[in-house]
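Quick one: C-alpha cells for this chain, please?
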Amino acid sequence: MLYERLASAGPIEHVAVMHCGAPDINQFLDLIAPRFPRGTIRIGTLGAVVGVHGGAQMIGVSWIAAA
C-alpha cells in the first residue's frame, strides 16, 4: 500500500501526490496528513501518458528523502 511505503521511507523532505481522477484522493490525503499536512505537499493530476499506463483513478506518490 502507498501509505506503508511512505511511512517506512524514513525522514522525508518533500512529498508529491499525483492522481488520475481518483475518487478517494481526499481519503488518502487525510491518511497521510498527520505526517504530511496538505499545505506541505504538492498535489496534482497526472497526464494522459502516465494515466494510460497506470489506469484511471490511480494515485501516485513521490518523495525526496532527507539528506
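The CA atoms of residues 15 and 52 lie 23 Å apart.
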